[in-house]
Design brief:
The protein is an alpha+beta fold. The chain is 43% helix and 12% strand. The chain has a four-stranded antiparallel beta sheet with strand order 2-3-1-4, with helices on both faces. Helix 1 packs antiparallel against helix 3 and helix 4 crosses helix 8. The protein is globular and about 45 Å long.
Length: 242
């Protein structure tokens, strides 16, 4: 049951990471990723959700997305605890940038996501015990500059799956093109939604960030500059929670 004692106030924005216990992979196939992303939507809710409605919703959600990127098709009746500003799923951890909108929202949201997905994972794999660490990691974001850097950092995480040492090498134009093509095929983050390719757009609240970056094209340019120019990122290391 991921929990953190730090108090967040409404309006606070935080970079949050939920780590798997012992760095084990907790997203092993497409079903796991769909369930994880659906959990971000489902558990961002103070209201209870009936088991029947949950199952029917998840089936439709997955069926539509297997055919191709689409938005969630149900009327949003949730009483949300946080705004999910962006996210990225990796095999053994989750990055989320959230803004608290209800008292205790960040802590309760992370508790529900960790417990809910953990229960699914244990049932599926016929195992017992914790799936995630007891405490999630989080750091508050204080400036627009930090916000932009963390936003790009979260979306850049999957690059390490194909370019393990990409942060240590000079990114040439050909490398950049390969990286962008890879990320445009990586479904398990909010990156696609921010560059105009509808994927899981109902999970995130995008308007604030598109204004901050000057629209989808502005974000594309910022993100590519971030990948190419990594020299000054050392001063932001505490925000990345690595």
């Amino acid at each position: 049951m991921p929990y953190r004692k730090e108090k967040f106030e409404n309006g606070d924005i935080a970079h949050v990471i939920l780590h798997a216990l012992d760095e084990n992979d907790v997203f092993k196939d497409t079903d796991d990723y769909f369930r994880g992303i659906f959990s971000l939507y489902e558990f961002n809710n103070l209201n209870p959700v009936s088991i029947f409605r949950r199952r029917m919703s998840r089936m439709a959600f997955k069926r539509k997305n297997v055919r191709g990127p689409t938005s969630y098709i149900f009327v949003d009746e949730r009483d949300r605890m946080v705004d999910i500003l962006c996210f990225c799923f990796m095999p053994n951890h989750i990055h989320i940038l959230v803004r608290q909108i209800k008292e205790g929202g960040i802590t309760e949201f992370m508790r529900k996501v960790g417990t809910g997905y953990g229960g699914y994972f244990n049932r599926k794999n016929r195992r017992r015990g914790h799936v995630f660490r007891n405490s999630f990691s989080a750091i508050k974001i204080k400036t627009d500059e930090q916000l932009k850097i963390v936003f790009a950092y979260i979306h850049a995480n999957p690059i390490s799956l194909v370019y393990k040492d990409w942060k240590k090498i000079r990114i040439k134009e050909n490398d950049l093109n390969r990286i962008i093509r890879f990320l445009e095929k990586y479904k398990w983050s909010s990156y696609l939604d921010y560059i105009g390719i509808q994927n899981f757009s109902s999970v995130t609240q995008r308007d604030f960030f598109l204004d901050l970056f000057g629209g989808e094209e502005g974000y594309k340019n910022f993100f590519e500059d971030y990948i190419k120019n990594k020299g000054e990122l050392s001063k932001y290391e505490e925000l990345f929670l690595e």
